Amino acid sequence: MASRATQKSWPEVWFETVEACPLCGSANLQPFLDGVQDWSLEAVPGAFAFARCSDCASLVLLRRPTAEHVGKAYAGYYTHGASDAAAPSKRGIAARIWRACSRGYVQGTYGGSASLASFAARTAVSLFSERKLELDCWYRFLPPAPARVLDYGCGNGDFMLRAAGLGHDVCGVDFDERAVATAAGRGLEVRNAADVDEADFVEGFDCITANHVIEHVPDPARLLARFAAWLRPGGRLYLETPNAQAAGLREFGRFWRGLEAPRHFCLPSRAALSRALHDAGFNRIEWHDRSSVGDDMARQARTAIQANPGIVPCRPASDDFHGPEFLTVVAHRAE
Hints:
Layout: E1 15-17, E2 29-36, E3 48-53, E4 59-61, E5 63-65, H1 93-109, H2 116-125, H3 129-138, E6 148-152, H4 158-165, E7 169-174, H5 177-185, E8 190-192, E9 205-211, H6 220-230, E10 231-242, H7 247-252, E11 266-267, H8 270-280, E12 282-288, H9 294-307, E13 326-333
């Protein structure tokens, strides 16, 4: 990867200026944080600025790549290749017991198993709320198998394989041709987002998952409406996205990992996302606070700060940045 010092600047015609909040449509955008760079991939040279929507408190990237050139911002992105082998498992009796309980919990909760062993495992895992939440998020609060599941933003297909292994009927959609090719090469049913029409999946799914997707799209409100149309009545949407009011943003400023300019176009506040979900046709919205991700987000921010010692973090002055790093939500389509 070329260093920032040797990268050529992108032509300005490769960018477009944003004048309204992509989530709520308000043009009342106030300057918030500038000097944000592509710290994680270094795929796009230059600095970028975020505004804050005065109406919904979402953060908006003011200069973003156009649809024709945004793919270049994903050079080397983590979803391009199939995953490496799983990390070595911890040893010891306690670790073995937890793995056995986890397998039983997953089979009983998401695989549809009604065995006595699965029931016992679910009871045991429920005693450890934080670790249980991580399992639930790993399987994205799937309904019991068999269910028809769409993974929108499927990347290399890792989650699709997990869901299919539990007995779900799974298909995927992604924006990136290389990610689509990787997932298809693993025997998965996957399509390019550019080839998906509004009417293709109407009321076709019991569950849709969109893990760190809506921050990447130019019109997140329209995408949420699509999800509602594609779900069967009562179907569920699992969604996770960086939080526009995260405590990490207050601590690390322009180095906060959740900004990821220029790939993240709009980061919603909790109130804005709740309103957008209701407007799209969802109800029964459940919020989950994944406190465990904070350490990794902080580690990545500190790495970027250490790699750029001459740049000040420039933290926001406001005191309302105290929420979780991610907004993790399960919402149900109204019946």
